[in-house]
Amino acid sequence: MLREADVVRKVERITVERLRVWVERGWIKPVRRGRALTYSETDVARISLICDLSDIMEISDDSVPVVLHLIDQIHGLRHEMKVLLAAIDELPEDVRASIKARISRSESG
What we know:
Layout: E1 2-3, H1 4-10, H2 16-25, E2 31-33, E3 36-39, H3 41-56, H4 64-89, H5 93-108
């Protein structure tokens, strides 16, 4: 877990002030440990993403939450798909074949 100063060193495009605003807006959700906030590597990746959205792609501050929500939905759906595929892999071969055939019919129609 990283502290605020570590994050600012790691993500050169972020300032302490900007990071605090993003935390206040709920875009970043660090964990509170005593009086300090700590950040995970996932938080750091999200901070870098928000920097890209704001600085490179010039997404407005009003639009950033919408983009983040859509990205979060995609990640959630990917996780659910992995769980579903793992469950299908555990089914008997004839059931898996039936599922594949049903998917093929759906894709062609």
